[in-house]
């Protein structure tokens, strides 16, 4: 068969020549006015290891989790220096920012996932993956206990242990219910692909339920009342998606109940999207008001039952009950049990997330790293080191610090204490030496220790913890693999800032987060974006920017094509309402 | 935004002008060398009812099921004459012939389903659909008892009744386990979309399980032993799909276990695909042998446990046990409980399927029809009516039948007893009157009753029941809606054959199945087909014919585009192995 053999050969060519194929798809996508670029080329510097070093026994690295942090670490880790084993209950990476789109079928679940084995296959296949859940981290014996979550046929072999030289914890977080009663039993969450699929089926169920015979109008209304708790980006995007799904697709096939649908968004703060610029918050609130989405700010949920939730208005303490057909709970992140247990072991039992230093190493351990939503960087305060800094800078031991002496240590300070730069920006100061001016703003030749302390005493207030986002996690994973890959090189030639509280230099530069902006899709082909440089953009054009960025950021060309196809399909045919 | 508003307008245009859009897609598809045509134009003759008739109270029709038969009935039923209510536990129609493709991700589940509400929307939205399971048919009181399968929030309202004037049973069949112990607990089936999705996840699970640490090679082999019971078209196609999935996709990402995978097909008959032409059977067997699929014919499964199945070789009675990782059971069809219960009510308790007459009306009822896999047509035997036929034909009451007298009733005989035509064909007779020749083959002027009887006594052996296929079900649904729509017209002007056992004419022509051929995809881009006129076609070109036919037969343009996209995606990127 000519056609068949032609296609076979073409397919073989594409498999063998991914670059050629990418160029092809790039052209296709460009003609569709989408900015897509290949980011599959790794930018990591690889350390050329000599044959002797290679012959040494490879160090064992165990990675827990295949989310943004874990996958980004795996994409770049140098397998010629490390033996890598990965444990995750899911054998795929999910592009989580598109989860709200999956809840309503704008994008299919399968379009946003990529098998982990596809990702590690590119790394010469020397990374081992086990589909299992980590039950316990045994920091004393350097091993992790895992259990396969495949329930059948394993006999007594379901649990196994892995030993490690280095452990990378990237298990993510779970939903934080703030111990509100009834939430785990009666609410839907939106953290995993399965969650999004469940919500999709349940939305359809609510409509099917509402059109059954023999119900009162009140009952139909209850079935069609969708409540979202949490006015962060995820909750807001889900509300917007749901509104579009109902108005664009469902009302045409369930015309008999189209006037009974209600969407309510409950937010405990005074505004939705309150981590964004306030222009975005008010734009979103206005849009939702026009769309008929009932936004209730300043309300706290006290409990959720099967049929209603009880809400307290924070300002005047009134408590009332709302009947519901479906509640999606989307508020903050909480710690997974395996991480809480590990925190007890390393003396962090009283904290809310696993604390690491600025090099992402878990405090209280030598060889355990934590990335992404399960961890938080405990930024060293400059005031803790103020005496050492002064002493190190005061080269002539005069007891005073001149501007030129200070300038010698400025670079190291800026790297070691990033809050200094944030502080300068917040005070609109151009240069670090401006810090040494006197309270009236006049330049000083030199400062003594007390003047130095008072010049820097407000700096630490600018040390903020990083948000629990995909961007942070991905950058941390890439950073850590870079450190791992350059361990030997940087041992010989350290590249980090000098140690003020000790001698010598840090081996690596600490992790520094670079914010590329964030989006909030608001439905009706509109979105809001906060871009670097305090730029704010809102409206239809921002939605197209969103399409471009999200298409380009896909983890593989496969998912990129699928996601773009899904968007096109939605434009042409609408969303599917089959309950599968 | 110019682009946005352009696309909005384009999308609006497409929604408003489906014909224009179809032409567009048709061009796109044609350029991809696929023969696709629109079959969305209904070919049914509509009866123009006068205003008086319309004002009469509409008769209530309740349809159970939204498979091939039910949907095909709904597509054409005239809603100006009937009030139609549909009850089905699934709110979608599934293109079941592609289910084996869904098991391995060649085609996505969502690409082969179309919401029932989309299908009935085209019928002016006057058909009511309820997502519920029919629990009981109460033939005495003309009502059905249904229960919503949505488990939450319905309080005491989960059950409801619907009254009917006419009932159409099209609930399909369930898997026939032949009461083999352990089958329902330990086997996967392949009848519903959910079944296919479960199999897909389980195949991936088997591979994930097999690569876990600490297993012996024997255990890994067991996990990777896939057993299919039943060598019919479904079982064979699944075996072929699975083999392709493993060889084309899974071995590259699970290279460590690629030599441990085994596929075994167990068939009780002497050949697989034994309802097909024997050239196809042996082609399939040879292809499977080359592919390394272990085909065991002449074996009966005695029981299935969690880890093994016990098999008896029919020829010499030996019983042995096979360890397995996954068993797919695909043998024959059985009766659903609600149908069995109804059969008891109408005195068919001893039968294996609901018997209808040739007009699809359930025997023993006046207003209940049954279509598709749940029913079987009980073809009237010509020998039962032989005296009446002779009497009716013998116009001069001479006690003998001349050739010209016989010719007067031939047309009615051929319509009423289709087995006559099959018999003629099997005996290579050109004309019906050839039946009247004497045993030596010489023409006779006339025959008496005994000669007439002996001429026709072997005819009934050719009355065969129809296969349980989508083609039969769809034709039955279309036939029945045509009858319903022409009820009034055909009451006044009957169009069926004359009644030999009574007076007058039958109102409608009986249902006649027209076989358009059947396919058996065999993997590796090869297929076999049995086409009308005893044509047999095998190989790569047949696979392309299969692609064309299956693309053209999709129920909507949406699913057509999705299915073709899925095939293309599989060619370019392979199948996805994420376990979602």
The separation of the N and C termini of chain A measures 37 Å
Helix content of chain A: 25-40%
Provide the CATH topology of the largest domain in chain A. FAD/NAD(P)-binding domain
Mean pLDDT across all amino acids of chain A: 87
Q: Rounded to an integer, what's the Rg of chain A over CA atoms?
A: 27 Å
Most extensive interface between two protein chains, with residue counts: A-B, 77 and 77 residues
Q: What is the number of strand segments of chain A?
A: 25
Provide the number of structural domains of chain A.
3
CATH architecture of the largest domain in chain A: 3-Layer(bba) Sandwich
Major sheet details of chain A: 7 strands, mixed
Uncertain stretches of 5 or more adjacent residues of chain A: 1-55
Shape of chain A: globular
Number of discrete helical segments of chain A: 20
Widest sheet, order of strands of chain A: 7-6-5-2-1-8-19
CATH class of the largest domain in chain A: Alpha Beta
Q: What structural class is derived from the secondary structure elements of chain A?
A: alpha/beta
Oligomer: homodimer
Folded structure, characterized:
The structure is a homodimer of 580-residue chains. Chain A is of the alpha/beta class. Chain A is built from 20 helices and 25 strands. The model of chain A is unreliable at 1-55 (pLDDT under 50). In chain A, helix 1 (2-16) crosses helix 2 (18-31), helix 4 (68-76) packs parallel to helix 17 (470-485) and helix 8 (193-210) packs antiparallel against helix 9 (217-223). The longest helix of chain A has 21 residues, at 233-253. The two termini of chain A are 37 Å apart. The first copy, chain A, is globular. A seven-stranded mixed beta sheet of chain A has the order 7-6-5-2-1-8-19. A four-stranded parallel beta sheet of chain A has the order 12-11-10-16. Chain A folds into three domains: 56-173 and 335-379 and 465-514, FAD/NAD(P)-binding domain; 187-334 and 516-573, FAD/NAD(P)-binding domain (3-Layer(bba) Sandwich), CATH 3.50.50.100; 382-462, Recoverin, domain 1 (Orthogonal Bundle). At the A-B interface, helix 1, strand 4, helix 6, strand 5 and helix 8 of A face helix 1, strand 4, helix 6, strand 5 and helix 8 of B.
């Amino acid at each position: 068969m000519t056609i068949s053999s032609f296609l076979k050969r073409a397919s073989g060519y594409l498999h063998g020549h991914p670059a050629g194929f990418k160029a092809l798809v790039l052209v296709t996508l460009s003609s569709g006015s989408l900015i897509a670029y290949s980011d599959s080329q790794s930018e990591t510097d690889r350390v050329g290891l000599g044959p002797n070093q290679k012959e040494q026994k490879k160090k064992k690295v165990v990675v827990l989790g295949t989310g943004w942090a874990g996958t980004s670490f795996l994409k770049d880790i140098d397998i010629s220096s490390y033996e890598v084993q990965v444990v995750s209950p899911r054998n795929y990476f999910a592009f989580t920012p598109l989860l709200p789109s999956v809840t309503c079928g704008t994008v299919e679940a399968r379009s946003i996932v990529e098998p982990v084995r596809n990702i590690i296959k590119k790394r010469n296949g020397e990374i081992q993956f086990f589909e299992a859940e980590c039950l316990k981290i045994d920091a004393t014996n350097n091993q992790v206990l895992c259990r396969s979550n495949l329930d059948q046929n394993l006999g007594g072999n379901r649990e196994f242990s892995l030993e490690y030289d280095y452990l990378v914890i990237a298990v993510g977080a779970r939903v934080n219910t703030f111990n509100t009663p009834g939430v785990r039993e009666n609410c839907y969450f939106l953290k995993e692909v399965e969650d999004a699929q469940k919500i999709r089926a349940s939305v359809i169920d609510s409509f099917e339920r509402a059109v059954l015979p023999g119900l009162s109008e009140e009952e139909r209304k209850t079935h069609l009342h969708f409540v979202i708790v949490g006015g962060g980006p995820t909750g807001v995007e889900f509300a917007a998606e749901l509104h579009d799904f109902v108005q664009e697709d469902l009302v045409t096939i369930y015309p008999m109940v189209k006037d009974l649908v209600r969407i309510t968004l409950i937010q405990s703060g005074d505004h939705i999207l309150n981590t964004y610029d306030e222009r975005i918050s008010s734009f979103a609130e206005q849009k939702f008001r026009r769309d008929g989405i009932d936004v209730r700010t300043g309300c706290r949920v006290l409990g959720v039952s099967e049929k209603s939730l009880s809400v307290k208005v924070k300002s005047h303490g009134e408590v009332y009950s709302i009947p519901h057909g479906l509640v999606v709970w989307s508020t903050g992140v909480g710690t997974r049990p395996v991480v809480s247990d590990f925190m007890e072991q390393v003396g962090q039992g009283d904290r809310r997330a696993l604390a690491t230093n600025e090099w992402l190493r878990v405090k209280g351990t030598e060889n355990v790293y934590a990335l992404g939503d399960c961890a938080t960087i405990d930024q060293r305060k400059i005031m803790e080191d103020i005496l050492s800094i002064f002493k190190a800078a005061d080269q002539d031991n005069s007891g005073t610090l001149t501007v030129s002496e200070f300038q010698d240590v400025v670079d190291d300070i800026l790297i070691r204490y990033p809050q200094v730069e944030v502080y300068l920006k917040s005070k609109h100061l151009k240069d670090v030496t401006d810090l040494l001016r006197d309270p009236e703003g006049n330049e000083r030749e030199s400062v003594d220790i007390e003047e130095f302390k008072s010049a820097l005493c407000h700096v630490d207030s600018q040390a903020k913890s990083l948000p629990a986002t995909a961007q942070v996690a991905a950058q941390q994973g890439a950073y850590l693999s870079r450190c791992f890959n350059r361990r030997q090189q940087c041992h010989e030639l350290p590249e980090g800032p000098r140690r003020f509280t000790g001698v010598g230099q840090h081996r690596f530069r600490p992790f520094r987060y670079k914010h590329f902006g964030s989006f909030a899709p608001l439905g009706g082909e509109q979105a809001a974006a906060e871009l670097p440089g305090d730029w704010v953009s809102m409206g239809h054009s921002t939605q197209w920017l969103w399409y471009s960025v999200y298409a380009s950021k896909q983890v593989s060309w496969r998912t990129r094509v699928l996601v773009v196809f899904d968007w096109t399909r939605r434009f042409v045919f609408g969303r599917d309402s089959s309950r599968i």
